[in-house]
């Protein structure tokens, strides 16, 4: 029996050597190596502090590991060079930048601190917010209700820059002001604004004659990051789906702090010029504010000053061929009640 086991171990060792020799020969011959598992790289840097519910109770362990990542830079051979990873244990969270080392291993290169990360889940998505060409990502931590806490980071090749609009707690911890973020070029200047849910679920008028608080707000990009810009009174996409023109009617109200002046903005089709609407009109409170001559294939963007009432009715009719779509927003262009506070690194 002992000789059989010895022979078996010998064969296993010989097989291992043969596989290693084959891999070496393939590398020397220029054949592609086995792809690096990015998920395995990310998982090996899961923060140990997220394995317990609280430093005060280290025995209370949590085994609900979740992670998400995006590759921000690649090596010449296609392997990841720089990875931004987000981690969650269902309660707390963390964000780490992982970099390839000269010896072929990986290490944590940067980890932001003092930020209130956490949620039931984590997601990471690349987003192009301007023409800088720098890698920009949105990190979102979920919650038990359908909402998110969103963070915006930019990698300049050396540093992770925090672009998030934030508030600072009494203990110095910063938390994001961005929730269920939508990236839209509202000003049509090539830089994306963020429309963030200010209250979720959206507020409703419970007392007749009473106006709601802000449901959504616009955050604009500055050299120091996103800052509060203006409230959004109405935000919706309209699509041309059927063969016959149809009218879509929506209602919205002013907010408690609405001051005006107000503007109705239309983005026609996609950013690349596809899916534009070639004919249509918009009626606001019985007044035609966008005529068929204004909304056509050549109209990429429209901005129309409008007068509003406490409660408003918007009627959108799209004609011509199906598949086209428009984005309609109604905004209060008065300065925000609180001065914009740029994010801190």
Summarize this structure briefly.
This protein is mainly beta. It is about 10% helix and about 40% strand.
Task: Tell me about this structure.
The chain has a domain at 26-174: Lipocalin (Beta Barrel), CATH 2.40.128.190. It contains two helices and 23 strands. The protein has helices spanning 2-28, 38-43; strands spanning 52-54, 57-61, 66-74, 80-88, 93-100, 106-110, 122-126, 135-142, 148-155, 160-162, 166-168, 174-176, 182-184, 193-197, 216-222, 225-239, 246-253, 262-268, 280-284, 287-290, 301-306, 311-318, 325-332. The strands form six sheets. Strands 13-14-15-16-23-18-21 form a seven-stranded antiparallel sheet, with no helix packed on it. Strands 3-4-5-6 form a four-stranded antiparallel sheet. A four-stranded antiparallel sheet has the order 7-8-9-10, with no helix packed on it. The N and C termini lie far apart (66 Å).
Secondary-structure element string: HHEEEEEEEEEEEEEEEEEEEEEEE
CATH architecture descriptor text of the domain at 26-174: Beta Barrel
Estimated structural class: mainly beta
Give the N-to-C terminal Cα separation.
66 Å
Q: Output mean pLDDT.
A: 81
The share of residues in helices is under 10%
What's the count of strands? 23
**What fraction of the residues are assigned to beta strands by DSSP?**
35-45%
SS element count, helices? 2
CATH class of the domain at 26-174: Mainly Beta
Q: How would you sum up the global shape?
A: elongated
State the low-pLDDT regions, or none: 1-31, 200-213
Largest sheet, order of strands side by side? 13-14-15-16-23-18-21
Largest sheet: 7 strands, antiparallel
